[in-house]
Design goal:
Helices cover about 20% and strands about 20% of the residues. By secondary structure, it is an alpha+beta fold. The protein has two domains: about 5-135, MutM-like, N-terminal (N-terminal domain of MutM-like DNA repair proteins), CATH 3.20.190.10; about 155-285, Orthogonal Bundle (Helicase, Ruva Protein, domain 3). The chain has a five-stranded antiparallel β-sheet with strand order 1-7-8-5-6. The protein has a four-stranded antiparallel β-sheet with strand order 2-3-4-9, with helices on one face. A two-stranded antiparallel ribbon has the order 10-11. Helix 1 (about 5-20) packs across helix 6 and helix 3 (about 155-165) crosses helix 6 (about 215-235).
Length: about 290
């Protein structure tokens, strides 16, 4: 499933063609994806202008002139492609040709600037919802989401306070969307390696008895921010389904230090360890048992 960097990459690709443009026509080619489409979905979108395109955790949020917000989730295999009057954007060196099966093109947005934006989702785990902006924070899908890891409010003190007293592992805590938004298996593994912290370490150990941060908390926050920023610059990670809006693949998978690198030497300078794979919470965890303590 796409994590924060992949969703942010998609947002940056869509923003230039969506923000400030009006939805002149909307094609809804099936009644549902993971969930049914909202009532009067097409009517509530057509004729509205997209006043802004943001992101919260793994959700794309298109603010509309009507006061509603179009919430879009990519699910497991969802992607957007953008075509202009002159055709689709020229792909770059990481391009893999998209599926031409129109059966997987479920929603098409025709914009007043000539752009045609198509949502393609072979597995249909993605979904779209319409919510009043004033009610967005209280929506069941939004209200339990934790802080944005790239936001100014996310710091060592916040993370330590949240993890204080937790008996779960650091891997489990960071994968919990209530603790921090948008992280998933890949970037949790990568951040823990950068911070030299074991994924098996108890989450509470990044705080003292008063819930104040220690050096582990600061190292972890710094590592989370660094790995996410590096991944966004690389266009995210393309393993199976992630594509940018121009058809290019993300490139960060070539920079993984531990994820899917079991059996390879640890890249930490001076470390003689070998990357190991274990299973935590039914998910693969990759780490170095030598330099991650």
């Amino acid at each position: 499933m796409p994590e924060l960097p992949e969703v942010e990459t998609v947002r940056r690709g869509l923003a230039p063609v969506m923000e400030g443009a009006r939805l002149t026509k909307v094609e809804m080619r099936r009644a549902d994806l993971r969930f049914p489409f909202p009532k009067d979905f097409v009517r509530r979108l057509e004729g509205k202008t997209v006043t802004g395109l943001g992101r919260r955790a793994k959700y794309l949020l298109a603010d509309l002139s009507s006061g509603e917000v179009l919430m879009m989730h990519l699910g497991m295999s969802g992607s957007f492609r953008v075509l202009h009057d002159k055709g689709e954007a020229t792909p770059g060196k990481y391009h893999h040709e998209r599926s031409k099966l129109s059966a997987h093109d479920h929603v098409v947005f025709h914009m007043s600037n000539g752009a045609v934006i198509t949502f393609n989702d072979p597995r249909r785990f993605g979904y779209m919802k319409l919510v009043r902006r004033a009610e967005l924070d209280a929506h069941p899908l939004m209200k339990a989401i934790g802080p944005e890891p790239l936001g100014n409010a996310f710091d060592a003190a916040m993370l330590a306070s949240t993890c204080a007293g937790k008996k779960t592992s650091l891997k489990a805590a960071l994968s919990d969307q209530k603790v921090v938004a948008g992280l998933g298996n890949i970037y949790v593994c990568e951040a823990l390696h950068r911070a030299h912290l074991s994924p098996k370490r108890r989450a509470s150990t990044i705080a003292d008895r008063a819930g104040k941060p220690n050096e582990r908390a600061q190292a972890l926050v710094d590592a989370i921010k660094a790995v996410l920023n590096d991944a966004i610059k690389a266009g995210g990670s393309s393993l199976r389904d992630h594509r940018r809006t121009d058809g290019e693949l993300g490139n960060f998978q070539h920079n993984f230090r531990v994820y899917d690198r079991a059996g390879t030497p640890c890249p930490t300078p001076g470390c003689n360890g070998t990357i190991k794979r274990i299973v935590q919470g039914a998910r693969s965890t990759f780490f170095c048992p030598v330099c991650q303590k």
